[in-house]
Amino acid sequence: MTNIPETGRTPRVQIRLIVIQILVLSLLGTLGGRLWYLQIREGDAYAKEASGNHVQQVVQPAVRGAILDARGVPLADNETRLVVSASRTDLLKMPDDGKGVLTKLAGVLGMKPNEVMAKVRLCDAETPQPCWNGSPYQPIPITDEATAKQALQIRERAEDFPGITAEPQAVRRYPGPGKSNTAQVLGYLSPVTDEEIQQAKDTDSPYLRSDQVGRSGLEREYDKELRGKAGVTRYEVDNLGRVIGQAQADAAQPGSNLVTSIDARVQRVAEYELNDAMKKARQEWDRNTNERYKADSGAVIVMEAKTGRIVAMASNPSYDPNAWVGGISAKDYTTLTGKASNYPLLNRAIQGQSAPGSIFKVVPTAAAVNAGYSFDGPYQCSSSYSIGGQVFKNFESQGYGPISLGRALEVSCDTVFYRLSHEEWKRDGGTKPKKNANDWFYKTAHQFGLGAETGIDLPNEVTGRIPDRKWKLDYWKANKDAWCKYGKKDGSYAEKIAYENCLEGNRMRAGDSVNYSIGQGDTLVTPIQMATIYSAISNGGTLYDPTVGKAIVSADGKAVQEIAPKSHGKLPISQKTLAEMDDALAGVATRGTAAWRFADVGWPQDKIPMHAKTGTAEVYGKQTTSWFATYTKDYSVVMTISQGGTGSGASGPAVRNIYDALYGVADDGAINKKNALLSTPEKDLPKVRTDGTITSPKVSKDPAKEQRVSQEGDKAPDEQQLAGTVPTQTPENRDTRRRRRAGRGGRKRGSRRMLT
Amino acid sequence: MTGANSFQVSGYGPERAGWTRLFARDSLARRLDWPILLSGTALSLMGALLVFSATRNRTELNQGDQYYFLIRHVLNTGIGLALMIGTVWLGHRTLRGAVPILYGLSVFLILLVLTPLGSTINGAHSWIKLPGGFSLQPSEFVKVTIILGMAMLLAARVDAGDKPYPDHRTVMQALGLATVPMLIVLLMPDLGSVMVMVVIVLGVLLASGASNRWVFGLIGAGTTGAIAVWQLGVLDDYQIARFAAFANPELDPAGVGYNTNQARIAIGSGGLTGSGLFHGSQTTGQFVPEQQTDFVFTVAGEELGFVGGGLIIILLGVILWRACRIARETTELYGTIVAAGIVAWFAFQAFENIGMTLGIMPVTGLPLPFVSYGGSSMFAVWVAVGLLQSIRVQRPMSA
Prior knowledge:
- The structure holds 2 protein chains of 2 kinds.
- By secondary structure, chain A is of the alpha+beta class.
- Helix content of chain A is 36%, strand content 18%.
- Classes of the chains: A alpha+beta, B mainly alpha.
């Protein structure tokens, strides 16, 4: 075949045929080369792309664990609601950016089209609320209050509503058992941000786009435990998203339940009494400022003295935690955070700090004993104490003659502490301190845990302040420029103060030490610090880290992880001094400044020994702060009301009522165990069954009101404590919440809870 | 075939009986180009598997019968083989006389497409619907008749020994003959087929020995024409879009570039040995459109990998190599031109088809010879193989 026939074949044609052959082969070579490039060299990249192509993830969010009170009553749980959401990605694919679909949807939901469209726009600097501040790839909830009929309409006509879904979802609910609120302690949730997703990406608990994250309170502190782990199912899909196989499925792990030491009933009583005390204080006339007391804020803590566990913690003003569920409306947000709001989101029990006044005196008492002064004294309780022409008066300028430190506590004699503190100040070198100054009064305060966080399991606790020499110097350095600029030698009072501060604000002056000794001046404490200290005095000197969380119980109840009480130190006093101090504080309740709230009005001191200390702190430019610190062998209760008047006057009745409720004490001093809400702290943990239901007792409609009633007469209310198994979502609780919301929201049902 | 003279078409070779005669030295069967025949059959059967893999889950196409396309593809191959045998039996010389009729018939058919009898598939109005669910794409046959017609004109005087090369007049006649159906196909519009025809014309002219001026003139004219077509808006938007997407599929991954992109992902993910027949996720997931026809190569790329894709290219290479040899070794210019035309046709169409799945050529609706599903294409290709075989079988004319 190789012989070329000797025909009319010309070389031109032969050459051209060879050219064609070479061309053809080079074309095929090109194909082969390209095929090698795609499949061998770049093969891995394309394989990855192909798997991304045909695998779709479906995420089943984990049900968030409940927050329970000490007896198992849910303070925060979930309810199933029909949530209608819109996928922005799908809407933007439509020629009109989904306007048509949203308008149709608005019709079905009975909302205004503008309202719906505002919800799906993204937030930025120029976009006012409502707008969506979550991820644009996440379905944006339009409403979580769709009726079954609306949801059906949307689902049956899916082709009319592309990108719209209507699905049942577990939504956080704060049922508020027995009208308790617990808002600041519980905290709230909001959608996860892109940054948080990035940050948590490589940790063992990464976020999902659809996650809600605890932003404050217990929801934030125990977020990881409560959140659980979302289930992910990976499906193989075809080009139209039709499922052609399931690749992998990790089931969702529901979040654990958090059992707290809160008792919903006591919580309700504490909230009610705090609010009531503040209301009453606003009726009182303040002789110093010649107006009624403002009583603008307050806090009360009920703590188990032997463990540091929180039984109740109330902060006023408060808010409805359900306002955050499903995203907060612009109006609600302004109400909660605006300048005129008085910041109800603040948990004043741990974030409110003010001068403690006389409830501080246990600190200088201990300091004096540590400095070598005898507890028994005697010390002169004059009506006033003067240093270099400056006169420091006793409260209401009363003198008691020579008394012991215990008596000084009982009658709250300021001059005794003025003198002791001043003497120590002088011993330490006065304005020119010695190198190794003892600073007993300041050192002791630090040892009591003041000026530092107590370590409570709630976020953003503040430290308060002990105005020792170091602080004075730091503070002066930070402010001297402003002071020196503003201060005038012969100006107004404020200008004179600034002038003085400019000159010698870096030094501890005699007056500073005197003011400090009675918890005035620059001293700041938080209610939780005082509750911790008074609990320590009650329990023999152990300073416990306060805790709200008591145990973390898995959703099936099988794994129980108890949160044991931890201590952060001991009070720096001997048992003898402690016993003497304990006696003195009992004396306050029996014959001292708080007697008119306890012993004089039927408190069964022999059965339930009460210890108390009152405080009325002066604040420059404001009305006095009312402080009341008390304890029994089981509990310590600390209350404060800003601009509320005197300690025993404004806070006294409320604290007494809380004790009455705890122990079931009637006004005449009779103890009725049946009425006692919690005469000893709850020791057992509530039972979580394997199916996730929780055994919890019923909570009556309003324990606070009932307590008031039972206090007056001896009539025990009907059996309130019918034990029963309450599933996490009872229709009854749901009604409560709906009613409450409907009452507040009025006609615009649902609108204030819309996602924005 | 016992005793039949059916294969003794040209009277060559000694008279022998039955199988012995068929496989005797110098017999017809011995003289057939077996590499081409076997390669073509192998490609067609491979095509059957690939088409089956691509369509067995596409219920919207296969009317609920997962073997629908498989059976038809095998059937088409069988008919194609029969057509080849028929072509060999008739012989290309015999067909030479019938070229005017065949040419006329094919032009008539493509004109028919332009009438309401024609139907549109994928934006190209190039099908004739036949009763029984069959459809015909006459532009496939036009490719054959253009080759035959041009070869007839160009080789007439040379084979008669009058001239060493076709003169200008003949070349112009031949070009005219090719231009008429090309314009009609352009009106359909079936740009891909026109491109193939242009390349065929080029190949035919080269092989005919026509002067270089014609060859380069035609290339120049083709370029000018392409620019003119682009500028004058003869092309539909979708055709331009396909071009743009080929250049950069990432520009519009959801639109036109989708085809290119998904095809490339399918092939790229195949790796060396592929995911195994019926196991390609891109194929099973139906991410690549037109996968049983224009994008059939992606099935091979994904499920059979570099090995399978390379095998297809090699088999095509065998056919083209042998066809080139046939063109070079035949004694008549007529046979040379026909073989060269077929080489140009197969080579370009294969390059264009595979090239577009690999993202190096623009996306046009062209089937991969032998492999793609489609009766008209299959028949035309096998007729062309028959022509090649006939040219080879009848080579020793002087014997």
